[in-house]
Amino acid sequence: MSSRGGPRAAGTDGSDFQHRERVASHYQMSVTLKSEIKKLIYTHVGIWLLLLAQMCVGHLKLLPHDQVAMPYQWEYPYLLSILPSLLGLLSFPRNNISYLVLSMISTGLFSVAPLIYGAMEMFPMAQQLYRHGKAYRFIFGFSAVSVMYLVVVVAAQVHGWQLYYSKKLLDSWFTSTQEKKKK
């Protein structure tokens, strides 16, 4: 080949080694999936902060109740949904499979379950709003049930994609673990 200061081998420009410099696909997949999951976690933290702000404003009565309604019951257990996101972030530096599995299980328990309960809790109020056009709770002039259903739909998508990418990341890590055992 070639050396830093010495002559090059005849017939080569020194770039014929690049075919051997590829990164294994499961490592590339791991980096990509970690990036996607981090984006989803940051989106989740944004939703979480909005709900926390709404709860603080409602309970501390910083604004009148006709501007910001008191929180629904499902919002309280949803505050625990920050824990699975933190576990997910902790699993990334050393590809810790245990933390990622705990994150996935607790996402179902602390994130998805409160969202399902919230959709059921708010359904009668949404039905009343749809049938009769009457809303009794408001958030800055908008029907609270409409705003919160929007939050539920967005949060469900965020957590769904987070679980999907976490499963693919887990599979990627198992692939790399199996290859290490073969060597």
TrEMBL record:
Membrane topology: Multi-pass membrane protein
Family annotation (InterPro entries): Jagunal
GO biological process, one term: granulocyte colony-stimulating factor signaling pathway
Keywords of the record: Endoplasmic reticulum, Membrane, Transmembrane, Transmembrane helix
Annotated GO CC locations: endoplasmic reticulum membrane
Compartment annotation: Endoplasmic reticulum membrane
Ribonucleoprotein recorded as keyword: no
Residue ranges of the TM segments: 40-62, 99-118, 138-158
PANTHER family noted in UniProt: PROTEIN JAGUNAL HOMOLOG 1 (PTHR20955)
Protein family membership: Belongs to the jagunal family.
The protein's name: Protein jagunal homolog 1
Originating organism: Baryphthengus martii (Rufous motmot)
Gene (name only): Jagn1
